[in-house]
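I have been asked to look over a protein record a colleague put together. Alongside the sequence sits a line of tokens, each denoting a local backbone shape. I have pasted the whole thing underneath without changing anything:
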Amino acid sequence: MGAKSGRNKRGGGAKKPAAQKSDKGRGGSKGAQRFGLVFFGVVFIALFVVFAVAQGLGKPSIPSGDIALVTNVPSEIGHISEADYKKSLLQQQAQSGAKKAPKAGSKKAEELHKAAIGELLNAAWIFGEAEELGIELTKKEIETELAKVKKESFKTEKAFQEFLKEDHFTEEEVQKRIELQLISTKIQEKITKQAPPVTEAQAKEYYEAEKAAQYTKKPSRDVRVVVNENKKEVEEAQKSLEADNSAASWKKVTKKYSPTTAVNGGLQKEIAEEFLTEPLKKDIFGAATGELVGPVKQEKNYLLLEVVTLHPEKTQPFAEVKSTINTQLTEEKSQKYFSEWVVGFQQTWTQRSHCASGFVIESCANYKSNGHPAANPASCYEANPKTPATECQAPVTQNAPAVPGSVSVSKPEGERLVQRPTPGIVPKKAKGAAAAEGAEGAAGAGGSAEEEAAVKAAEEAAAKAAAEGESSEK
């Protein structure tokens, strides 16, 4: 991208993009001021799926003074220095709300360490991808966006300068953060445009599948209504309207007996049957036009009704909704196409990223996975953990097939079927042990009367199963 992107004019690779993390714990107006700079995330980073690559592919030599090297990109993008890392770490610490650096070796310190490296790698990947896609920015684009962010996030220039100082940013780094955002948006726009177009057949198929639910208007009625808590007043209104039920008469009557509906002379348009309860549903949809119905008791009120107009069921033709359907399906296709592209993006750039010892994270090609999900605590794999884990994720992703018959054009993924283990054949002697284990599990979750009853029932079942097992053996 060269000078057009603005990077070379800011000193090449001396500075790296700052980390982008949440500002939890900062609170107050200062946290809000930072929203424009700290929270504007790269559009698709949130979509990344972490892939643990067990072995590095052709691991290159990482230069002294660097913590990581990203290949297949210009040197000012690919070399991530220790100075870059230290600056990013300070920014991560400030954005986390910590007043001082966490204790070395602590969980918090490890989180900030990984976040600082991860943000630097992500920035290099995005800039590298932009180079390959031929995406460029002008200096004016960056300056315009910077001015917008400053205006929206900071009341004064002084407030902006305070942010720079407190969060360890330079103006150049803020510009690079903005550049990163703009480039990532352009990448997403370019990739989504490559999604296959929606065909006429696909649009028609969707229309037929959703015609009854989305494009058919149910029958409705235009009804004039008198509403009053006093039945006698409703009966007086009825006498007046039986003598003259013209629109002018309805205006006079509702003004006198039904102030809440007087604005339109009691007229309520397009009342649908599905939103009515009995006896109103029957009275309105069973009446002929011009017929006075009532007084009808509805909760605390009495109603007098006259159906003015019948609106039959109406289905919008395909030609009328075709444009809306195309827009919707195009958006869905684009999102799916982009999500799939992101998976490949993550894999490609992970393989191109090599990290020095002490700086290896999941986004590095030389990261060696232990096969344990990152979310699992160490206690999941300890024989006698000091604090047992409350939950341990499976090391593989479970399949979640669709419920049979739920896949359709409007729901291509269908309804996800909840997966449960298939029960095996348990020997009689083992039934008692299994039931006892169930009782212990219920006791661990205990507290309520229902839970205590469940424990008791499980214990009784365990004793009975054990007795049956012994009897059969004899």
